[in-house]
């Protein structure tokens, strides 16, 4: 078994509000981290003062991303792709470990796949 925790379909569904909220927060943090204006200001001022406000913005965004990734790990929910919102929930199906697969924008968890099959191997529940 690759995962310690396994979700039933109702348990995974119960996590979707949290997952949606965290995806939004992580996307916002990533946008702040990759903001060209903040990065340019950070590069210009870093030698003299550590980056000032832009440095703080980038640092805070990094911490949000780091904490968000840790929260997914703590819940044993696999964040595959932040852009697409591709999420896998470890589960047991017919006595072997699989993933319940969900993508942000889908109304419900309706697919599963083998551990090594990935998105291309999704099958309807």
Task: Please characterize this protein's 3D structure.
The mean pLDDT is about 90. Strands 1-2-3-4-5 form a five-stranded antiparallel beta sheet. The longest helix is centred in the N-terminal third of the chain and has 25 residues, at about 10-35. The protein has three helices and five strands; from the N terminus they run αααβββββ. With about 120 residues, the chain is an alpha+beta fold. It is elongated.
Q: How many DSSP-defined strands?
A: 5
Question: What summary fits the major beta sheet?
Answer: 5 strands, antiparallel
Mean pLDDT score: 88
Q: Can you write the helix and strand succession as a string?
A: HHHEEEEE
Structural category is alpha+beta
List strands and helices in order, with pairings.
Blueprint: H1 9-33, H2 36-49, H3 52-74, E1 78-81, E2 86-93, E3 96-103, E4 111-114, E5 123-124
Antiparallel strand pairs: 1-2, 2-3, 3-4, 4-5
Helix pairs in contact: 1-3, 2-3
């Amino acid at each position: 078994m690759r995962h310690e925790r396994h979700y039933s379909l109702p348990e995974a569904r119960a996590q979707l509000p949290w997952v949606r909220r965290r995806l939004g927060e992580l996307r916002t943090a990533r946008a702040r981290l990759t903001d060209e204006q903040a990065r340019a200001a950070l590069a210009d001022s870093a030698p003299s003062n550590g980056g000032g406000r832009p440095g703080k913005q980038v640092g805070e965004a990094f911490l949000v991303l780091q904490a968000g990734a840790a929260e997914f790990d703590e819940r044993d929910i696999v964040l595959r792709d932040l852009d697409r919102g591709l999420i896998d929930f470890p589960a047991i199906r017919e006595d072997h470990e699989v993933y319940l697969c969900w993508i942000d924008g889908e109304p419900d968890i309706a697919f599963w796949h083998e551990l090594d099959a990935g998105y291309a191997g999704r099958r309807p529940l």
